[in-house]
Amino acid sequence: MQSFVTETETLEPHQKLFDEMLNRFNLSAKAISSAAGVSEVMISRFRRGKVDLGAAKLIALLATVPDEAKEWYLAQLLGVKPGISLRSFVICASPQEKAEVLNIIAGWMQEAPALVEIEPVAKAV
To answer: Domain locations in the chain?
Structure first.
């Protein structure tokens, strides 16, 4: 039976981006390995450029990560920008930038309380 794993010596862009995605989105290799049915050792070797995974294993791994991480990975890999969501920006933002977003929203709600319909905002949250 074919293993669909190729030994490599260099870090390819898709491997480097996968490693960066796990770090950027604070994803646990242990959690996604268990969910995808790919060993944690295999993921570690893939991230370091020691092996290359077949398409089926890479797709299985990507299927287990949050949509924002998946969209970021594919956009970086393919050089395209999918529909950018505000949620994606906020998730990737630094703590200081997140605080700034919260201050902007709080200021908006304070400045025009008559114009802000609280019920739809509360339902969205």
So the answer is: 5-81, 93-125
pTM of the model: 0.59
Q: Is 21 exposed, middle or buried (0-12, 13-18, 19+ CB in 10 A)?
A: buried
Query: How high is the pLDDT of residue 1?
Result: 45
Element (H, E) at 47: helix 40-47
Tokens matching residue 65: 């990560």
For the cut 60, the answer to whether the pLDDT of residue 2 exceeds it is: no
Q: Quick one: fold of 5-81?
A: 434 Repressor (Amino-terminal Domain) (1.10.260)
Residue 65 has pLDDT above 60, yes or no: yes
What is the distance in angstroms between the CA of the first residue and the CA of the last residue of the chain?
A: 50
